[in-house]
Amino acid sequence: MSVIISLPDGSKREYPAAISALNVAMDISPRLADAALAAEIDGKMCDIGTIIDHDSELVIHTFKTPQGQELYWHSTAHLMAQAVKQLWPEVKVTIGPAIEQGFYYDFDRDEPFTEDDLAKIEERMKELSAQDLPYSRRELSKAEAISIFDKMNESYKIEILSEIPDDQVISTYTQGDFIDLCRGPHIPSTGKIKAIKLLKSSGAYWRGDEKNKMLKRIYGISFPSNKELKEYLAFLEEAAKRDHRKLGKDLDLFSINDEVGPGLVLWHPNGAMIRHLIETYWKDTHLRNGYKLIYTPHVGRSNLWQTSGHLGFYKENMYAKMDVEGQDYYIKPMNCPFHLSIYNANHHSYRELPIRLAELGTVYRYERSGVLHGLMRVRGFTQDDAHIICTPEQVSDEVEKLIVFSLDMLKSFGFKEFMIYLSTKPEAAVGEDADWEMATNSLKASLNKLGLEFSVDEGGGAFYGPKIDIKIKDAIGRAWQCTTIQFDFNLPERFDMQYIGADNQAHRPYMIHRAVLGSVERFFATLLEYHGGNLPLWLAPVQMMIMPITDAQLDYARALQEKMLARGLRCEIDTRSEKIGYKIRDAEMKKIPYMCIIGKKEAEEESLTLRRHTQGDLGSMSFEDAITKINSEL
RNA sequence: GCUCAAGUAGCUCAGUAGGUAGAGCACAUCCUUGGUAAGGAUGAGGUCACCGGUUCAAAUCCGGUCUUGAGCUCCA
Question: N or C: which end of chain A has fewer CB within 10 A?
Fold first, then answer.
């Protein structure tokens, strides 16, 4: 009985009898066999040693495929657990999955793992890797599994087992003296894990629930070669340099201080200038795209929040009420109720729709202290908020415009890669099914029409409507939400919003709630990290520094500055009595895009010498040539 | 909010058998007027996060509070 195996490149191989995936890999090339970590047989992930006894499609996974990496890191997590159990037998193991970059394992241990502990564990892992222990799979019944882990006093494993259906086949993986409950598959042996680095330890709740016990988590990463590990560590180092908190301090952009309060941002002049430029651009773009700008108060009476429902479902995130002449007021965590109040101030005809109300609205939310993070998570922030109120017929057109509008705006700040998510109806939701369907479909249809790739988060929508989120990555690959486009079936109802249709009847409009940048603070942070502090010329707070070689050129420098300012360039002069090298170094470190150096020669010729940050000397030229050159970059 | 770690000059950091603080950069003044990433001298600058305790004596040891960081959880 022969076995025909189809490979991803479309080729087929025939074998006279059943054969292991590893042997097929060997047959293709010994190098592949060496790199092989697991097999995907007819779409199912299996150990590389799995015997194939019928015609199948086979994919061999190595560290080069995402699935291969995942297994590799998962197996490394097992290796780490083995090392920990050998060093501290009393520690209980819980779970240890692979994550996007590496793996972690949660342990139940009273004392935290110290730096020294991590080093010890890493050392032991290397020893175990050198022993090249095979990961061997064993299938057994639930009862058998329970008895094994019960003997080892691994109560967390018992808890996991107790939740698995009785008839399901349970598998364990053993390497050396370590046995773990695991679905698998795993890499063939510990020897494949060549380079290991344990990165940090921290606390984590059992099953992510803060009512449960706090476990001790260790994060790590591993690679098939030291070279790859080194590259990864270098990447982390590079990323740290781009951290917006560091750049914010170095470039004197913003600060957050204890006296003022955590999560509340102070914008210094340089940061404020960048923010001003972002906001001005934002307003212009919105006006050009049919939005109306509005302004609304920072506080509002409690009945407003009663109507909106925020006091019911959002109270935990709101600051405590304040008393104003016996009335309760709240500082706003959202802009929507104000925007809707503006809509409701007048009667509206279907002829006016869509109405697009936009505001850079500053909101305050009480965030738990542990979640604050630079400008990314703060307690007071400005949403680039807008509400689009339209008729059912206008919905898909509006959604499509909105997606294009959002992506265009993000692109104009230099961003190129986005992750798009579509979130659909959750279990508990308000609104008619027909509305949900119509809204979700128009979101999906628009994304498809625009040829955009997106992932669907089934049931991930807000209770009041489906949404599209666009995320941007920060320096170390963490994704942060910027754009959110959300349907809202809740507030139009609660605020009894209406428009008069062609039939002279009152109708309920559709409402889309959206933010493109998300919040100015978060966007500013991602922008800064994305550009590593080297902002595009149009966003640089100081675009040019004029540097006279000696004091003799000061007058010429001032005249030049005036001419630059008149042409709209943000330009300053370094008048300090320092050498040119010193001034240049200073301007380079402040990441000022253009340096304009003038000495005796330039003053006599009425010319200037330009230098571009990150590029160096551009040579001497006339004032007009310099302006032309600079303008070409704007 | 929880776990762990940390908080010393504007910034980056030294400072443990407890004995009332130190460097570099930045800043000020003076000298120097020097052509593409740090010229020299002098000086000023600190309630060692805050509150309490132990001690003859606390940046240092103990307790509490605040803040920051890494996570958990949550979100723009």
Answer: N
Residue A478 confidence (pLDDT): 66
Tell me how far CA of residue A616 lies from CA of A317, A538, A542, A585, A598, in angstroms: 50, 19, 17, 11, 15
Q: CB–CB of A322/A308 below 8 Å?
A: no
Provide the β-strand partners of residue A38. A47, A61
| Apex A203 CA angle, A200 and A208, nearest 5 | 120
Q: How far is CA A279 from the centre of its chain?
A: 22
- The 10 Å Cβ neighbour count of residue A576 is 12
Q: State residue A502 phi and psi, 5-degree precision.
A: -60, -20
Burial A600-613 (b: 16+ CB within 10 A, else e): eebbeeeebbbbeb
DSSP, res A272: H
- Residues 6 or more apart from A305 whose CB is under 8 A from it? A311, A318, A330, A337
Residue whose tokens read 């999560």 = A263
CA A260 to CA A263: how far, in whole Å? Answer: 9
CA distance linking residue A507 with residue A390, whole number of Å: 11
- Cα gap A339→A296, rounded to integer Å: 8
Which residues, including other chains, have CB under 8 Å from residue A602's CB and lie 6 or more apart?
A553, A556, A608, A609, A620
Please write the tens of the pLDDT for every residue from A263-303: 999 999 999 999 999 999 999 999 999 999 999 999 999 99
A457 CA, B61 C1': separation in Å?
A: 54
Residue-wise pLDDT for A14-53, tens only, equals 899 889 999 999 989 989 999 999 999 998 899 998 999 8
Dihedral pair phi/psi, residue A593, rounded to 5°:
-60, -50
**Cis ω on the peptide bond leading into residue A185 (within 30° of 0)?**
yes
**Residues A134, A545: Cα–Cα separation, whole Å:** 63
Please give the nucleotide, over all strands, whose C1' is closest to the CA of residue A206. B72
Structure tokens at A625: 């040539």
CA of A259 to C1' of B56 (A): 36
Chain B nucleotides with an atom closer than 7 Å to a protein C-beta: 1-5, 7, 11-12, 27, 31-39, 66-76
